[in-house]
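User:
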Amino acid sequence: MSEEDEWTPPEHLPWMDEALCAQTDPDMFFPEKGGSARSAKRVCASCDVREQCLDYALATGQTEGVWGGLTPRQRRATGQFIAQPNPRVDYAEVALWVERGFDDQEVAAKVGCAPETVMRWRHRHGIEPNSHGGRSSGRSWAA
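Assistant: Predicted structure:
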């Protein structure tokens, strides 16, 4: 990666402390055009936070690099890829507050968006809403 193409890491989220990629060469996850992503995918395959990483990439529209074991092309093929996120909504912040167990109303108030925006984000990622208000760890994936 050249200096002018230098990748700026996202804000730090709690799951990132457990990511195996943080212990390896970051260039491995951003191969040159036509380069192989195999090494990065091998690291991702044994990473305990692979799902959170992929969720983050999909929620924030990451268009470069291997995230959660998938290349940009593979992420787009999931149908959940947000090619152009709404610039008014910080989806990384939505992901952070949802991961911490806040309900749609609370997340919307913290992020400054409509509760429906949070609801759609949860639906896209198969995360059931926290219906009893307040915090819970209730993360459930749709089949």
